[in-house]
Amino acid sequence: MGVIAVSVYIEVLTFYARQMRLLDALDVEGYANTFTEDGVTDHAHRGEKIEGRAAMIAGAKHALPRYAGVAVRHWNDHYLVDEVDENTLNVTYCSLVTRTDAEGAVTFEPTFFIEDVLVRVDGELLTRSRTIHRDGQAKQVAQAS
Amino acid sequence: MGVIAVSVYIEVLTFYARQMRLLDALDVEGYANTFTEDGVTDHAHRGEKIEGRAAMIAGAKHALPRYAGVAVRHWNDHYLVDEVDENTLNVTYCSLVTRTDAEGAVTFEPTFFIEDVLVRVDGELLTRSRTIHRDGQAKQVAQAS
Amino acid sequence: MGVIAVSVYIEVLTFYARQMRLLDALDVEGYANTFTEDGVTDHAHRGEKIEGRAAMIAGAKHALPRYAGVAVRHWNDHYLVDEVDENTLNVTYCSLVTRTDAEGAVTFEPTFFIEDVLVRVDGELLTRSRTIHRDGQAKQVAQAS
């Protein structure tokens, strides 16, 4: 893994700050627009692969009622950024997910390890693929393969 | 939102590392000194606005007994930094707050979304205003307005 | 504390991203190899000091059964990086530790404050010493001494 430019590292952190806020605001279309048109989300831990923005939006809207009345937040850490080529980045990180209810009580979803491929299109980063591994399963995925 | 210099981004992260440690050490004066003399903290979720360092110190000392015997920690994520002018930055981020007791047991305060205005005075960043939104309320504030 | 180069700051974040993943993967040898041969871990809160990679590996293997069936994750925040000399860095940060079980339920270890000395050997960062303070004890260590 080579040394990436510091400007790329900050660009990546800022990309995730924006994308996670759209996700946590349950802004389904806004979140889908941070993926490429053919972007893929692979929930590896439950064998569910969603391909393309349209399918992503449909799936997310289906899941929305689950989050009625709670504020979801994703807390990411330990980003590793690997430059595949000038406009393609492999990014891996861990994610802790909280749910805060109307009284302010916080509960937790499982923790996750995520492998993303980001591409820069017209100067802007987008997620081309996201593979999500749930922690605590038989075969722990603590690092990128 | 333009692209900020990487040095400014690191300056901001380092500012928060220092400020949060003062806050979590319950160093009321030290924390107040990371604000401008007329600095404002607006607890938007409970309609409480504290103006100026003196009021901030008085209010914090009043709240201290609440934290007797527990170690508070703020865990921030998803910083977005927007340069208003050379010495003024709008910064937004999320905050998870833990309380660790003498036995090491961890409990949680609600999660928050925060909007800060930082100013650089004599080469040093200070908070001019802080607006705190509690998560889980009727109108979720997941992003800056 | 002077201003460190942004490239050093990113180098440090990337070092911890790798080291924490090895730790959380329970890769005892891989983790020990991120320390110098004579690296020291001082669990200040329980008066236990482990010196050298060999002792670190033996101690960690002894502790492994405690983590059978759970996925451990360290979530760090508020890094402060101080350059002692060209190849020596003092780094301090806070750490939140989760345990996720097979059902995905998350529980918490205490929170910690950590003081590291990193050295750059043949262009690569290694931990020369790590002092770990548990939060919530009589004398709170919220900042570096």
From TrEMBL, chains A, B, C:
Q: Report the residue ranges that make up the SnoaL-like domain in this protein.
A: 11-131
Query: Pfam families, from UniProt?
Result: SnoaL_4
Q: From which domain of life does this come?
A: Bacteria
Under the heading Gene3D superfamilies, the entry gives: 3.10.450.50
| InterPro entries assigned to the protein according to its UniProt record, in alphabetical order | NTF2-like_dom_sf, SnoaL-like
Tell me the protein's name. SnoaL-like domain-containing protein
Q: Which organism is it from?
A: Lentzea aerocolonigenes
Query: Taxonomic classification, please?
Result: Bacteria, Bacillati, Actinomycetota, Actinomycetes, Pseudonocardiales
